[in-house]
Amino acid sequence: MPDLSVGTYCIPAGGVDTQSPHTEDEIYVVTSGRARIVTPDGEAEVGPGAVIFVPTGEEHRFVDITEDLTLLVVFGPAYGSRATSHA
Prior knowledge:
mainly beta, Jelly Rolls, five-stranded antiparallel sheet, Cupin_2, Mannose-6-phosphate isomerase-like protein (Cupin superfamily)
């Protein structure tokens, strides 16, 4: 099982983030665009250079996307590697 996976996630300006909580920890790096991220602990403005950590299972959503948002996303362990395990 790979320890990490990496990809990009893009949401156009005015778009809707429909993702659900993941079974892996995530790190987002905003490469372009502007929005807010909302989590159970609060919300924050994000823009180029922002680094965001989201722990396994945490609800999170990008909202108020005012400029096309492009994110580099790193999953640990690899995305989907825990999806089939049932505790």
